[in-house]
Amino acid sequence: MPPTVLVTGGAGYIGSHTVLQLLLGGFRVVVVDNLYNSSETAVQRVKELAARFGGNLSFHKLDLRDGPALEKLFSSTRFDAVIHFAGLKAVGESVQKPLLYFDNNINGTITLLKVMANHGCKKLVFSSSATVYGWPKKVPCTEEFSLVAMNPYARTKLIAEEMCRDQYRADPEWKIILLRYFNPVGAHPSGYIGEDPRGIPNNLMPFVQQVAVGRQPALTVYGTDYSTKDGTGVRDYIHVVDLADGHIAALHKLDESGVGCEEYNLGTGKGTSVLEMVKAFEKASGKKIPLVMAGRRPGDAEIVYASTERAARELKWKAKYGIEEMCRDQWNWASKNPYGYGSPENNR
Ligand code: NAD
Ligand code: WQD
């Protein structure tokens, strides 16, 4: 019997790519998602991409805060491990609606941990974020850096990390891996699955993509006076398929002895500026991205990129793709699916 993994938020951007890699890696996968920020079409497409492994995937439309529904699922299936992606992730929205973020992200995680504990399922991979480093005083960010939340979204990640560390201290049979993602971009090379944010995108590359397909007139560049090579902000962009593979590496790590509650950065270790990223996308797409230069976005850090040493050493995982492949695959997805999983009439 292949190992069975529960994936919360598996219909979403990173979740769908991870589910595909899990299926191709021989795992059985059960996805739960309330489809708040995703479409069931993504799950269907993953099934198709997984070909003969597609039968190992099942989907339940379920809100993670619904304890009884989660209990029922755990009573009917024995899960070897859980990968927990489900959460809200828009920084600006979290500032406007902090209670929504605490309710969804914190209560969702508490419900999940409780139900896991009730059923003796003690292996967890959690989606944390580089946002827990706040505005780092130096780079690259190592996992030992002090943690700080600059907004309610980041606070939900920090609290969830602390809950995981506390749960492990209380019961050392738990094995938990906290993955701190840097900036996931790109799409599966098939162009069949990708990122499809609801409303106007907050993040750089989904916005660039919408400019390229004519859904937005121009990209606003937030800040041209940073102490960086060209004055624009620098980030560590990572191909979503590399990120997905990092989760498979984490699951294998959970099978080793001596694992407690561990933190790992998932990034490339390379910093790229906004203008470099735009240039790479223009090259990959052949489209001109009109720019509007503007002031800094409140709360933005200047330069953030990862130290990748711990993940390379302990997870035996390293990102394979560079920004050319990220932009190529993002454009492949965008040009084939200019309205994501929707349509011009039904534009989520
Ligand atoms: P996403 O919005 O595409 O996926 C999240 C999924 O969770 C969605 O399908 C959504 O419908 C689902 N969901 C949300 N709340 C739920 C609930 N209460 N019950 C059930 N399902 C629920 O986002 P993503 O980019 O794939 O991010 C996945 C995880 O990674 C999130 O926890 C996010 O905070 C984290 N993360 C994302 C980034 C990024 O830039 N994309 C960076 C660092 C960390
Ligand atoms: C990247 C760069 C912007 C949009 C956010 C979250 C973080 C994590 C990843 C989840 C910055 C610039 C952006 C635009 C721009 N998510 N930019 N014009 O800010 O590094 O991180 O997403 O955990 O928590 O804070 O990513 O893609 O928003 O911005 O100039 O329209 O692009 O100023 O320099 P960020 P981003």
TrEMBL record:
Residues 6-329 form the NAD(P)-binding domain. It holds the Pfam family GDP_Man_Dehyd. Pathway: Carbohydrate metabolism; galactose metabolism. GO terms for cellular component: cytosol. The keyword GTP-binding does not apply. It comes from the Eukaryota. GO terms for biological process: galactose metabolic process. Keywords: Carbohydrate metabolism, Galactose metabolism, Isomerase, NAD. Gene3D superfamilies: NAD(P)-binding Rossmann-like Domain, UDP-galactose 4-epimerase, domain 1. It catalyses: UDP-alpha-D-glucose = UDP-alpha-D-galactose. The keyword Isomerase applies. Its cofactor is NAD(+). InterPro entries: NAD(P)-bd_dom (IPR016040), NAD(P)-bd_dom_sf (IPR036291), UDP_G4E (IPR005886). Its EC number is 5.1.3.-. GO terms for molecular function: UDP-glucose 4-epimerase activity. Belongs to the NAD(P)-dependent epimerase/dehydratase family. This is UDP-glucose 4-epimerase. It comes from Trapa natans (Water chestnut).
